[in-house]
Amino acid sequence: MQELTHYINGEHVKGTSGRFADVFNPATGEVQAKVPLASKEELEKAVEIAAEAQVKWEKVNPQRRARVLMAFVGLLNRDMDKLAETLSREHGKTFPDAKGDIQRGLEVCEYCIGAPQMLKGEFTDSAGPGIDMYSMRQALGVTAGITPFNFPAMIPLWMFAPAIACGNAFILKPSERDPSVPLMLAELMEEAGLPKGVLQVVNGDKEAVDAILYNDTIQSVGFVGSTPIAEYIYGTGCAQGKRVQCFGGAKNHMIIMPDADLDQAADALIGAGYGAAGERCMAISVAVPVGEETADRLVEKLIPRIEKLKVGPYTAGDDVDYGPVVTSAAKENILRLVQTGIDQGAELVVDGRDFNLQGYEDGFFVGAHLFDRVTPDMDIYKQEIFGPVLSTVRADTYEEAIQLALDHEYGNGTAIYTRDGDTARDFANRINIGMVGINVPIPVPLAYHTFGGWKKSVFGDLNQHGPDAFKFYTRTKTVTARWPSGIKEGGEFNFKPME
Known about the structure:
22% strand, 16 helices, 6-stranded mixed β-sheet
């Protein structure tokens, strides 16, 4: 069995804690590797090396740092298939979906090539008599990121690319469920010209997380995961004086108006609700059709589309719609919540509980489920299921529909399908959710905008990637300079006060 490593100071380093976690192949249920779980001492050693490397890296001018990222983008394109295959094998995503995971991270790297422009300061000439004032953005020092299992390439790239472009060193603590791609990314960064020690990968669990939070050298922490852990990391990190950016859970609504193209809306719900087995923080998990006729027609269109979904391992070809969920525990939790929905009175229109894939009986596959007549008091509405389960909540009016999204504790993403511009404009302006799609089911912004939700989906005041990333990974220093006149006249021996 393969034993994975940490990546410290440009080398693969075996763990010394004696603790390991199993890395599964979700399609077969087999353990394919074990990953070391770092001790506090291992984490602190990595931070020491990163701190030393960062001093030199910060002195490299932004244009040369950008050239490293430029070379890195080329290497990501070169190794795209290799990275995607590894990602699919550990996570379970289809091969095209795995390539999309890498591509969306690559696009942030492309944006970060513009670091020289993003790091420019401001200058005011003659702010006062003989006084100039200017600001500059400077690196924080050693930064860290704690990333989730569902995007093992994209989220690390969203974090370490801007951090490194700004002149920081970065400690990456990836998910222990699928750690191989982050290790490969670190190798590629150094092949692109990044000095050893600037990017370190330390695998671990809560012990490593706490070591990050309580390490005085680490200046900032980024996190993506569940809301309870996001709250813990945000509260603990801020109490330690760190800059913290945490992204938590979601329950994303799509409102379908009576005038919408229902075939288009149904197709969008299939991809947004069941793609990646629902293991996306931007997945649409709640469909809100307005009016009984709209609801009946939408459900009628969804059923045959769901029943035709092809579920299988990534090795079965590019026409597989989604693969297994990441662990047996995730599968059990999804099926538990499905049963809760039934017990609480929701109508299970498409029942995937008995799904069984021949030859992969031990894999973590979950069939597609569709609930109708879900109500806001039900657990399947309130909780993030993170699986291939779509809930339909019927609304009589647009006002009732929008109120559902307004009242939910999560505010990551949302969408509306309509042909009416006034309705769409009203929705975009009134909704208290961070990312909004108008006839777009998964409104993840492109790299040069920022990604971030509202309410209990986010903790912190800056979003991921885009301009906010350069704000998060730098501090602003403002200098006020005054040069006394008369020096060019020669030395003076009497005291002359400033005017």
